[in-house]
Amino acid sequence: TVYSQNVYNFNVNNISVKQMFKQIEKNSKYTVFYRLDQVNVDKKINVELQDASIETVMKNVLQSQKLTFQVVDDIIIIKPVDGKSIATVTVTGVVRDVNGGSLPGVSVKLAGSSLGTVTDINGKYSLTLPDGTGTLEFSFLGFTAQRIAVNGQTIINVTLVEESKSLNEVVVVGYATQKKKDLTGAVAVVNVKDLNKQASSSVNSQLQGQASGVTVTGSGQPGEEPQVHIRGFNTFGDNTPLYVVDGMETYDVSTLNPNDVETFQVLKDASSASIYGARAANGVIIITTKKGKGKVSIQYDAYYGSQVPKGGNVWNTITPQQMADLKMTAQKNSGDDDFKDPLYNPTGVGSAYTVPDYITPAGAKESSPAVNPSKYYVNPNFTSPDDFGNFYRITRANKAGTDWYHAIFKNAPMTSHNISLSGSSDQASYLFSLNYFNQRGTLIDTYLKRYTLRSNTNFNINKHIRVGENLAYSITKTPQVNNATTHGQVSTNDPDGVIAHALREQPIIPVYDIMGNYAGSYGTGLGDANNPVAIQNRTKTSGSTSYRILGNVFAEADIIKGLTLRSSFGGDIVNSNDHSFTYPTYENVENSTINSYSENSNTDYSYNWTNTLTYQKTFGKHNINVVIGTEAVEDHTSNLGGSIQGFYTFDPDYVNLSTGTTNKNTFSSRSSNSLFSEFARLDYIYNEKYLFNATIRRDGSSKFPTNQRYGYFPAFSAGWRISQESFLKDVKWISDLKLRGGWGIMGNQKNMGSKDAHITFNSTIGQSYYPLDGTANLIPGFYQDQIANPNALWEKDINSNFGFDATLFDGKIAVTADYYRKDIKDLLYGATQLGTAGNGAVPAQNVGKMKTDGLDISVTGNIKASSDLNFSATGTITTYSNKISRVSDDANYFPGTATSRFDSPITRNQVGHSLGEFYGYQVAGFWNTQGEIDAANAGTQKITNDPNAVYQSDVKVGRFRYKDVNGDGIITEADRTFLGNPNPKVTAGLNLGVNYKNFDASIFLYGSFGNKLWNSVKYWRDFYSSFGTAKSYTALNDSWTPTHQNAKAPIQELDASTSSGATPNSYFVENGTYVRMRNAQIGYTFNINSLKKAGIQKLRIYVSATNLFTLTGYSGVDPELNGTTTDFGIDEGSYASPRTFLFGVNFSL
Amino acid sequence: CKKSYLDKPITGALEPQFLETEDGANQLLIGAYAVLDGQQGGDAAVGGGSAWEASPDNWIYGGVVGGDASKGSIAGDQQQIEPMMKYNPDASNSFFDSKWRADYEGVSRTNNTLKILAKVTKITDAARTNIVAQARFLRGHYYFDLKKMFNNVPYLDETTTNINQPNTTDIWPKIEADFKYAYDNLPATQDNVGRANKWAAGAYLAKTYLYEHKYAEAKVVFDAVIAQGVTASGQKYALNARFNDNFRAATNNSAESVFAVQAAANTDPNGPSNANNGDMLNFPYGNSSPFSCCGFYQPSIDLVNHFRTNAVTGLPYLDDYNSHAIKTDMGVAADESFTPDAGTIDPRLDWTAGRRGVPYLDWGVHPGADWIRDQQYGGPYSPIKNVYGQAEQETNGDNTSWAPGSGINYNLIRYADVLLMAAEAEAQLGNLDKAESYVNMVRNRAANTTGWVHTYKNNDKPTAGFTNTPAANYKISPYPGGAFASKDFALKAIYFERKIELAMEGHRFFDLVRWGIADTELNAYIAYQSTLTNDVRGGKFVKGKSEYYPIPLAEIDLSASGGTPQLKQNPGYH
């Protein structure tokens, strides 16, 4: 059969009409259009024609039916013989996306026919229809298809909505991809667009509230990575999830440029994650970065904004005169009637305390010769104790009171510029991006500066072989010394951190003395805090720079159809250097006279080499996908550093490790670990209805003893797309409904130390050197630094998950909900051992058990009110409940490490409770009279039959009365109890978006509900006896007095006691529930036509505000408090997330 | 290939088989010596906790709690000490576990030395015996410290495999056995002056007998130590001519030093881990103080009053010393004038307690309130025995951390202590004249005027030296012959002499308990001191309980393997 010059040759026998039409369409330019109710398409015919015209052919085909036809343009329309003449209709229009951009390549089809076309480069189409009836279908990959009835219209313009939540979305899972509708595990697919609305250096901090099952707690500190927990707690140690960035595994994505992220998936349960075996238990986050697509395009995204710290009297600080008054009250309450005070009443005459003119010399008046500036001598850069001994300081009192909060928290700018170049052709795709991120912290002298360069390329060598690379290089600069937990940050939220010093420093102290050198607590009665402005300013010459390459190269080959071999070699090289100079101090009551310099460098590298073989085949109703693979991972870390003291001058250009003179100190260390693994996964789908998945991994780790190196981690899951069943097919409002269930084992080796399987000895100055011959020549010795556990096994996280995915009302609403339960056994934990074991490092042992369960829910809605107005909403709800069921062989609890300034740890981790619960005495009111105390003591003496017994030690009128929890009539150790759980009952995020014409607006709300917080700030400020710090209005106006018994705080007195603020008690526990408007944004996209001449594809500008408001009953600065696994939700003076106002632009060429 | 891929070397540490040589065993022994100071570096006690929680001089557990000193600083600072000095501490108080763990680390290191030494084949018998005997001496010391603190403690030696041992068996015999072995096997002199020798072991053995009230056994050994004892470097034991030479780095390891925790300043760039880290808080504090911290361990007013002597006899007021109180500058501001006490005073006072108006080493005349953090709380005095001098601050002051260290050895046993212990044994055995002669040896040394505190040549330049004028009205005399007329009087005088000679050296509380008079003495102390300072107000020593510290609750909880704790709490504690 040949087609030439509009003549046709056919020689076919016994062919159906329908098949014949297909032959015609295949061999001609024509499309045959007919109605099934009019044409008997199954009729068998014979067509034998030579050089026939199309008319002849059609007559031949239709000869025995009462049909005729009409040729219009390229359409052959079949109609009954008696039918009216056909008047064709040509429909035209433009297809755009929601932002008004034209969409080329959209398929436009008349439903039920083969009539169709595609949109041109401008999104325009033109389609001739046999009549004005029928329905047009507009479809385009990545967008929700739309059907529009023609109804005689000749112009049909369409806006297609991106189908980001659609069922056919491809989701990257462990070593494979799946369509979302085929998922059987619990995978949260994060909307990257929502993620990127939050201006931040870190994808982790953007993640807060965006994925159900993920809890993120951060702070306002630039570059400080927040705590990310997937489904609560999985171990007593490090709960950081594993990240897989373009196939390269890492635990640190702090250097990832958020603009580069294309997809973001959270694998939450065993069936999705346990293919990562020994590293899966904390959950796995899979990130892919953007690849080049389509024609060459340049995109520029930038924002600039200002961060604004909280205003007002943030810490509720009283004035210097009120400080003086409070001191007198405390003295009176303690029976001290000596009102001669060096600061407030130096002469001792009279009994009134007034704020002096000068704090140094203490209590001096303006007229005093002691404040003659000619006497002043301070050399801030002193190097000798003799020089220091000659200082003469003169410091005025700040009678109005120094606002220390705002002395260290200032408005601070932040900016990000991102430019990318991308494109693709048949042979290659490429994306290059460059990001400059610079955020100053609201805490002075804190910052994060980062440059990130990315190159992602793919080459199709031929039809069956592909190679490529994804590579990011970053340079990150942060203040001060680098360390793994704080990411190179200053220490905040620490009882001796800079913010704690600011809240402790008295308001009477000015920032500077009369000559502009630092003022401080030097003197009498000024507390013992350090000047926080000085602390921060002195870090200016310190800093840390980190260089990192993270990426992989890969090759892929299709061996036979459906069988693909892939090999990927990834690497992560981190090189960081930091240096810091410690200045001597002179302004505080406790000064350090040494100057020292330290420098430290870390070189870490790791690689993973992954080889997979993937086979995919569909036969009939069966679809299978099999992956088998191997992986080798090796980590190396090394560290080198030193410190030295005794500099001639502190000029930062002079100071280095060679120019100091005394106390030279050097150190280095290195270690390595490796992992070798084999894994397999099977996905099987029957009839698009029944889904089954199984994975298995075998991991071998260098950390474990030789005889038990290997662990096996299986998982199974199944899904049932119940909406495909006939009984639900007719339920119109259910577009898709899938039930899922899974079970599996995830492993954890993270808490196992490299040496844990071995007894080792070591030799260090502090531990084991001794001046045995009576001189400063120390003699080195050895000590046991590691206790061995030769029996360590993998930690096992046995996980069950049940859930459903529902798409309702034609995709307008999508719901995903999961219930999970994790039983963690053989939990590796270095449980404290008896003192008789010696002090070698305790190895991880498989001693603990824990259970976590919870509910993850996410709901998405998209409502198109009109062609111009579009609403969208996404809500996520996360709950988890965590119970420790075993701690060790010996004890049923282990204490947390945070003690603040209390006499015992604030938290206790005990069987039957969650990790991190607060522990101490329950305050049951005050001792209001001596009679109450006597009566209680008498009762105790009777019960104990001991005439010396007291009900509660250290009691006085006005102090706390503790609850007798065990009811034995005496307050002891045993009456300490659990005071609150810092784990939220529920966290939730809500994204709301609206598009109207060229405008788009969104808000994002985040809430944490039912968690308790520990406010240690109250220790410093509500108790007069706490180290002479700045005090609060609570201490001044709402503390116990005989006439104000219904008070908040106990009596103000000179003594600290376990019956007031010295021991952990419920006074410090507060409700931590809050709802915060994390982000609000309004954008405008300029009309494309007016800019197109300049070649501009897109221009959008926006303004955005972060942390606009927070609703909370918490009395501290900010209810969002991060920490460690066992000590969090503790406020030692936190670095609150500031309010941020941004202006931004998205621009593409 | 796969196997070797997963075999990663242990870096920066050694497995035990590499130490199975003579040199290795010796280095393990040095490691066992190295925890005598209770420190691991970085201002941390070797068992965890802060440096001072396991100070080898027991300034908290023997000094403050024994009434030698107020805790000092301000109320609420190191709050854990406050319930101890009022005798109502909780077993959960973290200081107890730090102390416990520091001593057991010492035990563990001596046991490791013995265990690994047993596998060493190339070594002479003499060398082996010397190492074993030193290790057992040190183990004896660590257990002695545990015994006097906690009384009922678990015992592990180099053969013990289960670390969870009960604390129901009295370990005095074990301690005795270790010191006996050391005494019988150690050489009289050693290559390094800091090593234990025969006579240090003898003194410690006799001290053990004394604690066990085995006076006859004690006397035999004391006699030998006094007659033949030499230091590890071979110096015959003797009292230093100058009392203060026991507290100066320049005279470390003198003839009086029987066994000392060796100190060396500025040897660890990360802090004074070999320089009395445990005493880092115990320096004058405030405006014009030359020290960076912290105003703790202030000699109590009660202690200072012990140093009053009778103007005629030069003897102390054994019973009513507080009725002859020494004038204080309580409530007197630094810029107000103050004249120090003009009455007769034991010259040892001004080497023991810094007080206003008197030269404070070579740092200048003590300015009173300016160097005191809170007089009302901790009284007006400053510690001295642990404080380095100004002229030697570059070498023996250690300012590598936020609070100072010093290069002054702490004498666990010094010869004056031996004499007073021997006096006690003699008195108990009825040899009162012998006892008196020992006490008078100690008093006569104190009476040596060249060893007294003298005024500065120039108050504005204290390092320029001293005059020959005593800084106060010092008077001290030996007991006249036959003064020890009764055993009761003899013991009272010996106890008193111990108090003033060894004040601020961490012995007091343990002495009082050993003598069985802790309740009366300490309740009297609280009654008196409470009228002057508010730090111990409300405190009460409870007989039958307060003699020993509680077994750390954390240890009891950890000993609950299988349900019931192996460790039993001491009487009176929860």
Structural overview:
- The complex is a heterodimer of chains A (1149) and B (574).
- Chain A has 1149 residues and is mainly beta.
- Among the domains of chain A are: 78 residues, Phage tail protein beta-alpha-beta fold (3-Layer(bab) Sandwich), CATH 3.55.50; 72 residues, Immunoglobulin-like; 102 residues, Beta Complex (Ferric Hydroxamate Uptake Protein, Chain A, domain 1).
- Chain A has 16 helices and 59 strands.
- Chain A has a 22-stranded antiparallel beta barrel.
- In chain A, a hairpin with a 6-residue loop joins strand 27 and strand 28.
- Chain A is elongated.
- About 1% of the residues of chain A have low confidence.
- Chain B has a two-stranded antiparallel sheet with strand order 1-2. Chain B has a two-stranded antiparallel ribbon with strand order 3-5. In chain B, strands 4-10 form a two-stranded antiparallel ribbon.
- Chain B contains 18 helices and 12 strands.
- The radius of gyration of chain B is 24 Å and the shape is globular.
- Chain B is mostly helical.
- In chain B, helix 5 runs antiparallel to helix 6, helix 8 packs antiparallel against helix 9 and helix 14 packs parallel to helix 15.
- Helices cover 36% and strands 7% of the residues of chain B.
- At the A-B interface, strand 33, strand 34, strand 38, helix 12 and strand 39 of A face helix 1, helix 2, strand 1, helix 5 and helix 18 of B.
